[in-house]
Specification:
By secondary structure, the chain is of the alpha+beta class. The chain is built from nine helices and ten strands.
């Protein structure tokens, strides 16, 4: 099972000498029983992709930590690393009142499993000796504590949180200054329809009060909190992969929005202003059906899979140290 669900089992193969062929990677478990796959209606062929399961919480911990460091590397590759800003975390399945997060100052592109720091829901470091960004502990800890376990977990719910991603993307940061939501101008935006909240700027974050303030704006189905004059904070109900995909997809949606605004000469104004002439809005029914297909936690996990595979291949096992 672990050879399917975790990446560490492939590390020796990835470090093989130059004479040996590179491995064929099987990162996504599949089944011939279509009824148990979330993706049964969006795939064809004899098999369907399924969400990984784990024999022990320790095995799941390793999977989550490996995917967290690969997420950092993917975010760097997508231009979403900015100096020492940004922090991502995943809840620990062994001790769920703690989470794993990056140390401040470590390059996203060089992140390793051994770099990760474990923090409890009071914002205190319980494992690791490197410093963590005070805004990370101040934001993440109150959110995990307030929201509880996420989708599919014992005692969890669809409003719970299993992972958080916050980076300073250039397009989401620019869009955050406009004080409005994304328009329904393409199918990708439909995943975020009525699942994004605007959070007024509260200054630099250094204590848990600001984290509690941010969390107070969340609704049960919130995927993205757009921190005005700051950037996006994305939540994963299921996995770090899901939260990372919402971040990457939302960044691309913000870029598309800014391009459409520029091309249509949209005037600045109040949020909710009518679209300029010639800009076509996705209809209500079409948006709702699209959201059901591409806006689920499982689809967020799945959409991130190619980026995880890319980073695993590029790492050649370096991320596992």
């Amino acid at each position: 099972m672990s050879s399917v669900h975790t990446l560490s089992s492939l590390s020796e193969t990835l470090h093989a000498g130059p004479q040996q062929a590179q491995p064929r990677l099987h990162l996504l478990p599949v089944t011939s029983d279509h009824s148990i796959s979330t993706f049964k209606d969006v795939q064809s062929g004899p098999n369907r992709t399924i969400i990984p399961t784990f024999s022990t919480p320790i095995e799941e911990r390793q999977y989550r930590k490996e995917h967290l460091v690969l997420v950092f590397r993917a975010l760097h590759r997508h231009g979403l690393a900015e100096g020492i800003a940004g922090h991502c975390s995943t809840r620990d399945p062994v001790e769920p009142d703690t989470f794993w997060v990056n140390p401040q100052g470590r390059s996203f592109a060089r992140m390793r499993v051994s770099d990760l720091i474990r923090v409890n829901d009071e914002g205190e470091i319980v494992e690791g000796d490197r410093p963590v960004d005070a805004s990370a502990t101040s934001i993440h800890a109150p959110i995990y504590k307030a929201r509880g376990r996420g989708q599919g977990q014992d005692g969890g719910s669809e409003s719970g949180v299993e992972a958080i991603v916050h980076v300073h993307g250039p397009h989401s940061k620019a869009f955050s200054a406009l004080g409005r939501q994304l328009d329904r101008i393409n199918q990708d935006v439909c995943a975020f329809d009525d699942c994004t909240v605007l959070v007024p700027f509260g200054g630099a974050v250094f204590d848990s009060l600001e984290g509690q303030r941010i969390a107070s704006f969340f609704r049960p189905d919130t995927k993205v909190a757009l921190l005005q004059n700051h950037g996006a904070l994305c939540l994963g109900r299921l996995s770090i992969d899901e939260a990372a995909w919402w971040q990457i997809s939302y960044e691309m949606c913000c870029k598309a929005q800014l391009l459409v605004d520029a091309a249509s000469h949209r005037p600045s104004g109040l949020a909710g202003a009518a679209l300029p002439n010639g800009v076509v809005r996705v209809g209500d029914d079409e948006c709702a059906s699209t959201k059901l297909e591409i806006g689920t936690a499982e689809m967020g996990w799945f959409c991130m899979a190619p980026y995880i595979e890319d980073e695993m291949w590029e790492s050649k096992g370096d991320h596992l140290w």
